[in-house]
Design brief:
With 441 residues, the chain is α+β, with helices and mostly antiparallel strands. It has helices at 2-35, 40-47, 54-60, 62-68, 79-89, 94-109, 144-210, 216-249, 274-296, 326-391, 397-432; strands spanning 116-123, 129-140, 299-308, 312-319.
Length: 441
Amino acid sequence: MRQGGIKVAAICVAASLQAGCMGSGGDGAFVSRANTGVSTSGQAALRQTPTKNDETLNSESAVIQGLLSRTSVLPSGSAYEQVTTAVLAANARAAETELRAARLRAEAASKNWLPTIGPNISLNSLGDIVSQIVVEQVIFDNGRKKGERAFAKADVEVAAVALAEDTNDRVATGLGLYLSAAEGRESAYVHRATLREMEHFEYIMSERVRGGVSDMSDLNVIRQKLSEIRASIAASEEAAATALAELNAMSISPQNDVRGLKPLNISASAAEPLAVIRAEAQKERDIAQARIDRANQLPGVNAEAAVGENSGGGITFGGAALGLGTNARLKSIEAAGEAAGRRVAQANEDANRTLRKLEGQVAAKARQAQEAHELTGQAKENLDLFTAQYEAGRRPVMDVVGVYETFADRQTAETSLKFEALRLQIELARVQGVLADGDQI
């Protein structure tokens, strides 16, 4: 009898070691694939391996349905869409792996009401090994199994929101870099136009100085302005090159030739902020955890049956021991659910403040950009007037130089305000999670 028990134990240990080795081999293979930088096949595998519980989760979860129904506010076929496609194609999608793990945990939890089967190997007082197969079925657990299923479902929702946030953050980062590169190019273009005009004025002034008509100090002033303009051109080009290099580093293909700017049709009521949805999902998860904790504080009833040596069965009644502090522990668990609800309210308030601030900033920057455009037009009219007066001999060169410098400053301010308004629009869309289609995420 003792030898038979030893054989059973040896077989179980060997099976466990074999399973461990197989698990280790699988992990090693995954790490080696990740180290080679091949992520496309891994992403495809994630999308092509749905769990059996996914359809139920998607149909029963209002959070997931809401995320799936979101549509991108980026104009179709625009440069924004091209950048977004390239940036998302190169995404490592770590959040997608977390969602995959949560889906598998939810599938496992959906079957937690079924009986559990496992071996029971013990050594008795006589030195004999007794091996049994134990079947256990929960009869009454104060809602612990139900709480585990609710927790797993809410965990999937939290992971889904995290994936949506991660995707929108990446798109916002890519678009921000694209705008920085575009702003650098446009700013350099404005400064080059200014440089050409200033070089023309420098030539005129140098000739006047050579002829003794003007003072050398005026020529030095113009040359100083030329140095400043050249420095501005270099800074703009460097900023554009840096932003473009960073954008290419996070894209699947170079974005050097992508051009185009379009304002986004976005408002503060486009969609519910992702931060609020995340807080709501976390609230459901916290409430489910509170149910599990409460059930763990109370006794339950299980049915057990043992097959093998000394077979038998019966009903067991057990669990956490009741004490004088049990009531206080139960109340503290109930308070955890209330705290989760308050966190949702706070997240809602914070999100509304952020949306109102961004909405106001977008409107303000758009207005300022329009005013800057009008001021640029007025400066151009003044420049044309002064130029005509100079050519008629009624204005000195330095007066025209000063007016042209004002015109160039207005152009630079208009460019800066235009891009600030576009960045704020992208940030408003990021907060609401509408930079990418939900079903594509």
